[in-house]
Amino acid sequence: MTMARVKALSLRLDPQAYKRLYLRAQVEGVSMNEVVKRALNAHFATQPIDRERLLELAREIAARDATLLEALAKA
Question: What is each CA distance from 10 to 7, 15, 31, 41, in whole angstroms?
């Protein structure tokens, strides 16, 4: 993965969650960033997005932004 394709995210945690994240990273010998990335990847692998819900959201966005989409199509 090249650096140009990496996105940064500011993550706000309550003190207890931060402490748990810090300790987990220390125990695993990795950065806190790596613990978060692993947790997200595990979550995404076990909790896939429902295809019908995704299509529903796409339709809602298209309907809400129809004027913008029309303007972009004409550009």
Answer: 10, 15, 15, 18
